[in-house]
């Protein structure tokens, strides 16, 4: 529910649905009013025609003056309280349709001028509301024509029934129209929000390394947002480069004094001041490990990788170098790495990480170092396994801690696996270290690139 309230799509759809409901409701009421007026105009026209037909039945001449020849005959006018009525007042004489029975239409209001008609609302039999047309004429010639007043009426309930029938037929069509417009609104919103999905896809591409920048080939409305994101990335890269340079400069600045301290410690040993020399060497060695690690971290380029690396040629090159070393000459290096697989990591960073792991395997193996590269779904897995003694289980979780060295020969500085961990983290990969029984297994997992 919270996600729906935060969704632009659902907000626009809800607003559109409310607007459509209001518009359709107003349309329905408007159409009902128009239909009612149209039905009333048709009814008035019919009543006017009937009033003229009644006027034609008045005989203007005769000894006793004008008389009504005969009233209109019809089942609705003969049936009591049928809803259709007429009433004629000719001078002092009054004639009514049989449908009025004993009821007389009120004539207390002023009659329209002779020759004109008026539309009225009158009370009818049994309290019914009537729509009536009154026609006023003067019959005869001379100075004293006889006034003729004709009222033809119909009950308004019949008009209301027609209006309700019209609304009953109209509402299903309005509902169908509303559903169609709602679907069209959903499609319109989806098309309108498509640029935002495109922006989201490009941000995901930035995160995965598929794109270096957002670019400008976007809809006009989202180009300013893309430009600001690109500026932010440019500023971030500049800050990272400056921080990397500062770290490298600081590490280089410490390296010479530390080397001088180690030289002083050697002189103290030559003077048989072993305790002081050992103390200085311990401190200087620890500080040198920090410096070496910061130098290694300053070289990492995978803060936001946009290129990929093929592990196979890198491994072949590194193994070729290690085979020429005295310690690696007697090792059986087994490599199973198909070419064409691309991992999402900078090639220099991958070289440094694999070099550290291969050197570590070379120092601890007995005879065999096996290296394999394989694809697992959308990941590239690089596995380096030796047949050495492995690592005590209690130390497995501490292997990537800086300064920790489990090399019994004392040649390791304790920063190799820590640097590898930093490189893998920067490339958004995964480092797995475990005992292989026998031996030790190190796995690097990176996202695969096409």
TrEMBL record:
<keyword id="KW-0418">Kinase</keyword>
<dbReference type="InterPro" id="IPR003594">
    <property type="entry name" value="HATPase_dom"/>
</dbReference>
<keyword id="KW-1133">Transmembrane helix</keyword>
<dbReference type="GO" id="GO:0000155">
    <property type="term" value="F:phosphorelay sensor kinase activity"/>
</dbReference>
<dbReference type="Pfam" id="PF02518">
    <property type="entry name" value="HATPase_c"/>
</dbReference>
<dbReference type="GO" id="GO:0005886">
    <property type="term" value="C:plasma membrane"/>
</dbReference>
<dbReference type="InterPro" id="IPR036890">
    <property type="entry name" value="HATPase_C_sf"/>
</dbReference>
<keyword id="KW-0597">Phosphoprotein</keyword>
<dbReference type="InterPro" id="IPR050428">
    <property type="entry name" value="TCS_sensor_his_kinase"/>
</dbReference>
<keyword id="KW-0472">Membrane</keyword>
<dbReference type="InterPro" id="IPR003661">
    <property type="entry name" value="HisK_dim/P_dom"/>
</dbReference>
<keyword id="KW-0808">Transferase</keyword>
<protein>
    <recommendedName>
        <fullName>histidine kinase</fullName>
        <ecNumber>2.7.13.3</ecNumber>
    </recommendedName>
</protein>
<keyword id="KW-0812">Transmembrane</keyword>
<feature type="domain" description="Histidine kinase">
    <location>
        <begin position="249"/>
        <end position="450"/>
    </location>
</feature>
<dbReference type="InterPro" id="IPR005467">
    <property type="entry name" value="His_kinase_dom"/>
</dbReference>
<dbReference type="InterPro" id="IPR004358">
    <property type="entry name" value="Sig_transdc_His_kin-like_C"/>
</dbReference>
<dbReference type="InterPro" id="IPR036097">
    <property type="entry name" value="HisK_dim/P_sf"/>
</dbReference>
């Amino acid at each position: 529910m919270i996600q729906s309230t935060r969704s632009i799509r659902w907000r626009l759809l809800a607003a559109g649905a409310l607007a459509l409901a209001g518009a359709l409701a107003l349309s329905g009421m408007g159409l009902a009013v128009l239909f009612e007026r149209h039905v009333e105009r048709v009814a008035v026209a019919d009543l006017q025609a009937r009033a003229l037909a009644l006027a034609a039945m008045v005989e203007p001449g005769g000894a006793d003056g004008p008389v009504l020849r005969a009233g209109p005959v019809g089942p609705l006018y003969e049936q009591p309280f049928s809803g259709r009525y007429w009433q004629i007042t000719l001078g002092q004489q009054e004639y009514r349709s049989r449908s009025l029975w004993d009821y007389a239409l009120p004539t207390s209001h002023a009659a329209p001028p002779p020759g004109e008609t008026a539309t009225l609302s009158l009370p009818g039999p049994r309290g019914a509301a009537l729509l009536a047309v009154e026609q006023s004429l003067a019959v005869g010639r001379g100075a004293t024509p006889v006034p003729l007043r004709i009222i033809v009426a119909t009950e308004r309930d019949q008009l209301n029934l027609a209006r309700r029938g019209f609304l009953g037929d109209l509402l299903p069509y309005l509902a169908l129209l509303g559903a169609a417009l709602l679907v069209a609104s959903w499609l319109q919103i989806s098309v309108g929000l498509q640029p935002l999905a495109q922006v989201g896809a490009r941000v995901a591409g930035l995160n995965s390394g598929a794109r270096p920048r957002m670019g400008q080939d976007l809809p006009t409305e989202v180009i300013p947002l893309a430009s600001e994101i690109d500026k932010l990335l440019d500023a971030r890269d500049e800050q990272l480069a400056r921080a990397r340079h500062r770290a490298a400069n600081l590490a280089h600045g410490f390296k010479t004094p530390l080397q001088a301290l180690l030289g002083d410690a050697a002189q103290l040993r030559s003077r048989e001041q072993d305790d002081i020399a050992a103390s200085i060497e311990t401190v200087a060695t620890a500080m040198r490990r920090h410096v070496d690690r910061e130098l290694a971290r300053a070289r990492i380029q995978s803060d936001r990788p946009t290129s990929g690396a093929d592990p196979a040629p890198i491994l072949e090159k590194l193994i070729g170098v290690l085979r020429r070393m005295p310690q690696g000459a007697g090792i059986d290096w087994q490599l199973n790495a198909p070419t064409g697989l691309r991992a999402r990591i900078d090639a220099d960073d991958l070289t440094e990480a694999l070099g550290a792991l291969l050197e570590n395997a070379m120092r601890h193996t007995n005879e065999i170092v096996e290296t394999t590269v394989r694809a697992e779904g959308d990941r590239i897995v690089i596995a380096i396994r030796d047949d050495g003694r492995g690592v005590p289980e209690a130390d497995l979780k501490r292997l990537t801690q800086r300064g920790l060295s489990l090399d019994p020969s004392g040649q390791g500085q304790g920063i190799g696996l820590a640097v590898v961990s930093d490189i893998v983290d920067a490339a958004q990969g995964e480092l797995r270290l475990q005992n292989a029984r026998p031996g030790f297994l190190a796995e690097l997992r990176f996202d695969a690139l096409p």
